[in-house]
């Protein structure tokens, strides 16, 4: 089971967890889809062999790192249920495996997560810039961006210029800087490349916090998107919200580019980073939501 005994879950925990799960469940496959600014492999897990292809990701934002163990817990519970011919939140796990091919990127922003959890050591290659961008503070627990101070969920070519003007950020910082141009960052490039390579029927990006589900984008979404979001809401108790005044996010780009359903789920409630003590409470709602996402297009 996902280990949160240390009170945090960083890149090394993720890599160890992926290795453990792939040894325990050989039908779970791992891939490297790209590398972060600092060269960390960005890992994708693939489970299932069905014709319905979907994608889930987590930890776009560094201080939302709790989304990674939430996703990994779900992967482990599904894999374990498959191996025992059991159920996953009321669904036959093996049927889900036969029907669905799921690609999971549990940590989009590994460098940022490590910064938010560990801070910067004296020899860090970006130490001086990070201190400057963080206004001299060595406290990075509120950091959202990648290691170059770019908000990865403002990086996608979906009315990016309007998002840049709205944010009003002229340079790198802890949050809200969309970068010098769309897809300037290797982490965003890796996710865009995966999404362009595999014809996903739907995607879901797991963020924190607010217990809301964002399902639309500038009327580009397919007509059934709101109904599907309502189903996710019924499964979790989260509130579907028709969002305005936001551009350049991953699900925005997916909806605009492919005209298929995309969702941003704001898990949990409180102030980021959400405390580990809330993990089980959050997962009790997120788990059923992720299961429902797997059967939306059945």
Q: What would you say this structure looks like, in words?
A:
The protein is α/β, with parallel strands linked by helices and 298 residues long. It has two domains: 201 residues, Zn peptidases (Aminopeptidase); 55 residues, no CATH class. The protein is built from ten helices and ten strands. Helix 1 runs parallel beside helix 2, helix 2 crosses helix 10 and helix 8 runs antiparallel to helix 10. The longest helix has 17 residues. It starts with 10 loop residues before the first helix and ends with a helix. The mean pLDDT is 97.
Question: How would you briefly describe this protein structure?
Answer:
The chain has 298 residues and is of the alpha/beta class. The chain is built from 10 helices and 10 strands.
Main structural class: alpha/beta
Number of H- or I-type helical stretches:
10
Report the sheet-strand fraction.
15-25%
Label the CATH architecture of the largest domain: 3-Layer(aba) Sandwich
Count of the domains: 2
User: Roughly how many Å is the radius of gyration?
Assistant: 18 Å
- Average pLDDT works out at 97
In whole angstroms, the N-to-C terminal distance is: 29 Å
Unreliable spans are none
The main sheet orders its strands as: 1-2-6-3-7-10-8-9
Helices and strands, in order, run as HEEEHEEHEHHHHEEHEHEH
CATH topology name of the largest domain: Aminopeptidase
Shape: globular
> Percent range for helical residues?
25-40%
**CATH class category label of the largest domain:** Alpha Beta
User: Tally of extended strands?
Assistant: 10
Largest sheet: 8 strands, mixed
- The CATH homologous superfamily of the largest domain is named Zn peptidases
């Amino acid at each position: 089971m996902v280990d949160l005994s240390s009170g945090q879950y960083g890149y090394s925990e993720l890599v160890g967890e992926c290795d453990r799960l792939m040894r325990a469940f050989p039908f779970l496959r791992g891939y490297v889809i790209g590398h972060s600014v600092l060269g960390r492999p960005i890992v994708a897990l693939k489970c299932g062999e069905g014709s319905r292809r979907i994608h889930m990701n987590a930890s776009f934002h560094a201080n939302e790192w709790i989304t990674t163990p939430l996703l990994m817990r779900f992967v482990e519970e599904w894999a374990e249920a498959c191996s025992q011919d059991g159920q996953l939140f009321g669904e036959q796990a093996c049927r889900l495996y036969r029907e669905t091919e799921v690609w999971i990127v549990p940590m989009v922003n590994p460098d940022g997560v490590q910064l938010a959890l560990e801070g910067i050591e004296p020899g860090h290659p970006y130490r001086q810039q990070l201190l400057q961008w963080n206004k001299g503070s060595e406290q990075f627990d509120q950091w959202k961006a990648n290691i170059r101070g770019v908000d990865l969920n403002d990086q996608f070519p979906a009315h990016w210029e309007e998002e840049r003007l709205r944010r009003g950020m002229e340079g790198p910082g802890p949050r809200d800087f969309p970068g010098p141009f769309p897809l300037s960052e290797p982490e965003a490039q890796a996710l865009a490349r995966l999404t362009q390579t595999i014809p996903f029927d739907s995607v879901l990006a797991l963020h924190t916090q607010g217990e809301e589900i964002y399902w639309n984008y500038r009327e580009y979404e397919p007509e059934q998107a709101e109904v599907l979001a309502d189903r996710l809401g019924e499964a979790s108790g989260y509130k579907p919200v028709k969002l305005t005044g936001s551009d350049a996010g991953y699900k925005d780009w997916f909806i605009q580019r492919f005209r298929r359903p995309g969702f941003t789920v704001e898990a949990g409630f409180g102030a980021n980073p959400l405390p580990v003590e809330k993990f089980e409470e959050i997962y009790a709602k997120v788990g059923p939501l992720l299961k429902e996402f797997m059967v939306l297009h059945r």
